[in-house]
Specification:
It is a single chain. By secondary structure, the protein is of the alpha/beta class. The chain folds into 2 domains: 168 residues, Nitrogenase molybdenum iron protein domain (Rossmann fold, 3-Layer(aba) Sandwich); 127 residues, 3-Layer(aba) Sandwich (Rossmann fold), CATH 3.40.50.1980. It is 44% helix and 11% strand. It contains 11 helices and 9 strands. The strands form 2 sheets. The protein has a 5-stranded mixed β-sheet with strand order 1-3-2-4-5, with helices on both faces. A 4-stranded parallel β-sheet has the order 7-6-8-9, with helices on both faces. The two termini are 32 Å apart.
Length: 304
């Protein structure tokens, strides 16, 4: 897990986020509503918007497909959004550490921490990218609905009806994921970063990425030569069926891995940490699962 920065660093980071201190509003009709839900990323903002409908404003702090939420730093304006929110929805688990930094000085903020809602049945060890688990996203949606129903009783039925619809669609995605493993028993993959850990776990697909390689990438460090060599060997000898590639954290090393996969005719599955443009959370997760299924179908015959 990436190193957690201090609260002092947050207060000094105005210049890093000047272009995004005016947070975009997700899923709102543009009217002034009483309740404001603030989300650390547009991923959780989309989940919140699915529950609020037009009854509350939703603002996402990180909302760019090129930003890496791991390394983002909150400005004072972002911190004010968090502390003034009617409800703060964030990932937790050290993923959006800058939210934890702000909340440490404001324990009274009403929050939903997704990582804390990770089901006990989910494959271990735990991974901070919990938004790739539909069951966890559903738990977040349910808790958002419950919290808003308490503070806005007039729209409680709408919040809970929206949460029920979200749960139905999230379960459909989970069934798609489980079907992938059944269609590709014994399939192996590698990943430039363990972003889609829960997608693979739900599908029953084994990630053969060398542990040292994954750990180095998570720590923003270059993998050891032996780990890089092991990763390339898995690809060059077609011991895996696909490569999962995160373009938001591309480095010279991960680009080398991507190029090797393409030369070896190993399909590449793109996974991101924020929403593609004009896409909501449920559509994004469904499309990613379908992309994995489709690319595994294209794997070299010996690895299907």
């Amino acid at each position: 897990m990436r190193a957690i920065r201090t609260a002092a660093a947050v207060a000094m980071s105005i210049g890093l986020v000047a272009g995004i201190t005016s947070c975009t509003q997700q899923g709102s009709n543009g009217h002034q509503q009483g309740a404001t839900v603030v989300a650390s990323t547009d991923v959780w903002g989309s989940v919140a918007s699915a529950i609020t409908g037009d009854h509350a404003a939703v603002k996402s702090i990180v909302n760019s497909a090129v930003d890496d939420p791991h390394s983002f730093e909150a400005s004072p304006a972002d911190a004010a959004e968090i502390t003034d929110a009617s409800l703060m929805v964030y990932n937790g688990g050290g993923y959006d550490h800058w939210v934890d930094d702000v909340l440490s000085g404001h324990p009274g903020v009403n929050t939903v921490n997704a990582y804390s809602l990770l089901p006990g049945t989910v494959a271990q060890p735990a991974n901070e990218h919990v938004f790739y688990d539909p069951a966890t996203a559903n738990a977040v949606a349910t808790q958002i609905a419950d919290r808003l129903a308490q503070s806005d009783a007039a729209h409680a039925d709408a919040y809970r009806a929206n949460a029920a619809e979200f749960a139905k669609r999230a379960d459909e995605i989970l069934q798609i994921e489980r079907a992938i493993g059944k269609a590709h028993p014994g399939a192996y993959v590698v990943a430039t970063e363990p972003v889609a850990h829960y997608l693979l776990a739900n599908a029953g697909i084994t990630d053969k990425t060398p542990e040292g390689f994954s750990s180095a990438v998570e720590e923003d460090a270059d993998p050891a030569p032996a780990d890089l060599a092991a990763m390339l060997d898995l690809i060059n000898t077609q011991q895996v069926s696909a490569l999962l590639f995160n373009p938001q954290t591309q480095t010279a090393v991960t680009k080398q891995i991507q190029d090797a996969a393409q030369r070896a005719s190993i399909p590449v599955v793109t996974v991101t940490e924020t929403l593609p443009e004009d896409t909501d959370y449920l559509t994004w997760q469904r499309q990613t699962a379908q992309q994995l299924a489709s690319q595994l179908d294209k794997a070299p015959a010996t690895n299907r």
